[in-house]
Amino acid sequence: MREFLDCAVLSTTCNEDWVDRWLQSHGATRLQLHRLEAADTRNPDSVATLAVASMRLKRFDACLLPVAEHNLAWARTALSAAQGVLQTPVLALVRNLKAAALNDLYALGLSDFIRDPVCPEELRVRIQRMLGNRRYHGGLDMASAALGESVAQYQGQHGSANQDTICATILDRSGIELDAFAAASASRCATSKESFRTAKSKVIERFERAYITAALGRHSGNIAMAARAAQKHRRAFWALMRKHEIDAAPFRCEPAPTHPRDG
User: Fold this and answer.
1) Which phi and psi (to 5°) does residue 9 adopt?
2) Using an 8 Å Cβ cutoff, are 128 and 2 in contact?
3) Percentage of the chain modeled with pLDDT above 70
4) Tens of pLDDT, residues 25-41
5) H/E element holding 112?
6) Structural domain 5-136, CATH architecture
7) Most exposed of 104, 110, 153, 233 (fewest Cβ within 10 Å)?
8) For residue 117, is the peptide bond before it cis, meaning its omega torsion is within 30 degrees of 0?
């Protein structure tokens, strides 16, 4: 059992005063608390804070997220956007939250919660026990790490280029890469003002278009062979082609040029 643990504290601008008072009331303990820059809940893009900070949070044993009624909606969206991306376990320091709200946070990826007021030593014990849970060790942890790195790749500076690349080679991609692509796309959509249905339909349309295009390319524009490989009825495959206005002709091999015989 480790003697010292490092915990990041990610507050929001609407609860900075409460968090500041809590941090100032506790001296140095075996749990080292590291205050991160507060997320501005007035900025719609701030809901991606957890997802964007996933790489930075790797060096901490846990992330403490203070949650009260006034930033509950923000916390829900931030946890949702970080699903499949964040590897560091998140604990909520909660104030005046009901059981239904806590259940929602658990469903969105929260690892544990502790009610305010709480002493850092008790929090350290909770984190220590949580880190001993099999959920954060073994094969699941390795898969999560690979997924997190892939998602970060698709969310990086060259995100759009990476999206075009994976769409062009979607049939050759592994499951972890497709999961990462889906998680990155969902994370971006969650930060927009689009509804769940609208965002989901866009991701599905992009996948369908990429898959049909890649299948036709692999089978040189032969619709019957592409449909058979996709395990779809030819009419259903053709309907998807019409839906996305995809023409098979450009994928067909050009006939070899004929040369006149020497007379």
Assistant:
1) -115, 115
2) yes
3) 69
4) 665 577 888 888 888 88
5) strand 112-115
6) 3-Layer(aba) Sandwich (3.40)
7) 233
8) yes
Domain ranges in the chain?
Answer: 5-136, 139-251
Q: Which residue type does 41 have?
A: T
Name the least confident of 33-42, 67-76, 184-193, 242-251: 184-193
Measure the CA–CA gap between 32 and 102, rounded to whole angstroms: 25
Task: Compute φ and ψ for 252, nearest 5 degrees.
Answer: -80, 140
CA distance 124 to 112: 12
Alpha-carbon span 76 to 78, nearest angstrom: 6
Distances (CA, A) of 226 to 32, 214, 230: 57, 9, 6
Amino acid in position 134:
R
Reading the block at residue 195, the tokens are: 């509804």
Would you list the DSSP string of 34-67? EEPPPB-TTSGGGGGHHHHTTTGGGGSSEEEEEE
